[in-house]
């Protein structure tokens, strides 16, 4: 499995707002999780070009991440800038 419980806990610990393994609800931790899944699906689709169900899932994940980033822009621009720099993604 590409995303084990230990990997999820590590993502939440490194990128969550409270920097704890149980901080699963903050936008930063969800954005980090979505980014990891997006990177995995992107690599999968480079190999399997005709996998349209995975492509649809990728587009849905990108939309969810975008909506969370828009939420952060509206409420706390500094947190938005921090997570963008930390994950290396841009608008």
- Proportion of beta-strand residues: under 5%
Shape: globular
Order of helices and strands: HHHH
What level of helicity do the residues show?
over 70%
| Low-confidence parts | none
Calculate the mean pLDDT score and round it. 92
Could you give the distance between the termini? 30 Å
List the helices and strands and how they pair.
Layout: H1 5-15, H2 27-47, H3 52-75, H4 77-87
Task: Write a compact overview of the structure shown.
With 91 residues, the protein is mostly helical.
Structure notes:
74% of the residues lie in helices and 0% in strands. It contains four helices and no strands. The longest helix has 24 residues, at 52-75. It starts with a helix and ends with a helix.
What features would you highlight for this structure?
single chain; globular; 4 helices; 0% strand; 91 residues; mainly alpha
